[in-house]
Each structure stands twice: as structure tokens, then as C-alpha cells.
């Protein structure tokens, strides 16, 4: 007989003993998530010939964060970076949605995102921000070298200063009636364009 799992409260709700919180089979809850600091981030960049980073500005929804981390792992991202303030962190919900990726992709929360972006640029990383007002298509940008893909929250997008720190602002071509994609879907589009350009098989 399998041991029963104790009920846990989901984010923002009280525990209901009749409804155990689902746990994903691919998430090892006994293993700590891979959390690092800014020094770890800069060492990762130095160790990689062409680092691929995902920078998330103002992503507060844990489901979106978990989905972004899951896609980051699949695309071979070397680290996911978020600000410490006004952003979701690695809760059980995020880990559940990430399906094991939170235990493999370094998750870095930084005090000052703009300053961290400047340091990454000094280390040779080109920062590509996705924005509706982007002057060129994502598909027209060279994404083969050291790249940081910068994504903003749905609705407000990335903060003004974050956008100003990007080397390029790009857009995903939209051919239908909707004006934008869910941030986790847009993240997948961007990261897999990086994968395609890098010739990863």
C-alpha cells in the first residue's frame, strides 16, 4: 500500500483535509530547489561559452513563473533571474508547475535588477527584451551568442528602466486579432528561437 500524502494548503487558501494538494510525479519535493545568488550567476556566465539566461521582470503569478522555469529547463537555459521585490518566488505551487525544473535550473533573485543587467552586459551578455513596441522582429535578431532574454509581466510589461537597459527590444509577430501572448507562452517562443538559431539538435 502506498503511504498517503498529507494535505497541504495551496497558495492563498486554507487546507482542506478532504482535498490533498496535487503533487507532480516529476517534482522531487525531497530535493531542494536550485537557488543561487548573484555571485553564482556571474560564475555561471564566466563558465559558459554562450550562456543563455532568462530574466523575468515583475512576474507575480506562480503558475506563470513555474511554466517559465519548466520551459527554461527544456531549452537549456543556464539560469533564471528575477528581482526580489514584486515578483513570485519558489513556492510549492511554482515547483509543482515547473515539474522538476526548479531542482535543475539555477533560480537567482537579485536586489537590483537594472544593476545586475549592467553587470551581465559587462561580462559580454547581450540583453534582448520582448515588448510590444519592439522595433524589430525576434526572428531578425542574432541569438547565437551570450544572450539574456528579458520578459515583462502581462499587462504592464517590463518596467521602464528594465527596458532601457536592454540592448535590443524585439517583438513576436502577431497575425491574428489578439494583441499579445501569455508570458509563459511568449517565453517559450523566444527561448526556442534561441535553440533553433544555436543549432541544438
Layout of SSEs?
Blueprint: E1 35-36, H1 38-47, E2 52-57, H2 62-75, E3 79-83, H3 92-98, E4 107-110, H4 113-122, E5 126-130, E6 136-137, E7 147-152, H5 160-165, E8 168-171, H6 183-198
Parallel strand pairs: 1-4, 2-3, 2-7, 3-4, 5-7, 5-8, 6-8
Please characterize this protein's 3D structure.
It is built from 6 helices and 8 strands; from the N terminus they run βαβαβαβαβββαβα. The radius of gyration is 17 Å and the shape is globular. The model is unreliable at 1-17 (pLDDT under 50). It is α/β, with parallel strands linked by helices. The protein has helices at 38-47, 62-75, 92-98, 113-122, 160-165, 183-198; strands spanning 35-36, 52-57, 79-83, 107-110, 126-130, 136-137, 147-152, 168-171. The protein starts with 34 loop residues before the first strand and ends with a helix.
Q: Ends: how far apart?
A: 42 Å
Strand content: 15-25%
Compressed to H and E, one letter per element, the order equals: EHEHEHEHEEEHEH
Rg:
17 Å
Widest sheet: strand ordering: 1-4-3-2-7-5-8-6
Judged by helices, strands and strand pairing, the structural class is alpha/beta
Which parts are unreliable, with pLDDT below 50 for 5 consecutive residues or more?
1-17
Mean pLDDT: 86
Number of strands: 8
Q: Characterize the largest beta sheet: strand count, sense, and whether it forms a barrel.
A: 8 strands, parallel
Q: Quickly count the helices.
A: 6
Helix content: 25-40%
User: Outline, from the CA principal axes?
Assistant: globular
Amino acid at each position: 500500500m502506498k503511504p498517503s500524502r498529507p494535505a497541504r494548503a495551496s497558495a492563498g487558501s486554507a487546507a482542506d483535509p478532504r482535498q490533498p494538494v496535487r503533487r507532480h510525479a516529476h517534482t522531487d519535493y525531497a530535493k531542494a530547489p536550485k537557488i543561487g545568488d548573484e555571485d553564482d550567476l556571474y560564475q555561471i556566465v564566466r563558465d559558459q561559452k554562450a550562456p543563455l539566461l532568462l530574466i523575468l521582470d515583475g512576474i507575480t503569478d506562480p503558475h506563470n513563473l513555474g511554466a517559465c522555469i519548466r520551459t527554461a529547463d527544456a531549452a537549456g537555459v543556464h539560469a533564471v533571474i528575477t528581482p526580489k521585490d514584486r515578483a513570485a518566488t519558489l513556492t510549492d505551487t511554482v515547483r509543482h508547475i515547473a515539474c522538476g525544473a526548479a531542482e535543475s535550473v539555477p533560480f537567482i533573485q537579485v536586489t537590483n535588477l537594472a544593476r545586475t543587467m549592467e553587470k551581465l552586459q559587462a561580462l559580454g551578455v547581450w540583453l534582448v527584451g520582448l515588448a510590444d513596441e519592439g522595433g524589430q522582429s525576434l526572428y531578425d535578431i542574432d541569438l547565437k551568442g551570450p544572450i539574456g532574454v528579458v520578459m515583462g509581466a502581462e499587462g504592464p510589461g517590463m518596467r521602464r528602466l528594465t527596458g532601457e537597459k536592454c540592448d535590443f527590444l524585439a517583438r513576436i509577430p502577431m497575425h491574428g486579432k489578439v494583441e499579445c501572448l501569455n508570458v509563459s507562452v511568449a517565453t517559450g517562443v523566444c527561448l526556442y528561437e534561441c535553440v533553433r538559431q544555436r543549432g541544438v539538435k
